[in-house]
Amino acid sequence: MFLLRSTVFQILFYILNLVVMIVFSPLLLLPRKWGGWVMPVWSKILQILMRFVAGIKVEVRGRENLPQGGFIAAMKHQSAWETFALIPLFSGPTFILKRELRWIPIFGWYTAKYRQIPINRGKRSEALTAMMLAAKQTIAEGRQILIFPEGTRRPAGAEPKYKSGVAHLYRDLNCPAVPIAHNSGLYWPRSSWRVYPGTVIVEILPPIEPGLPANVFQERMVAEIETASDRLIEEARQAKRPSPVLEQVDRLRQTRSA
Question: What are the φ/ψ torsions at residue 150 (nearest 5 degrees)?
Answer without folding.
Answer: -80, -10
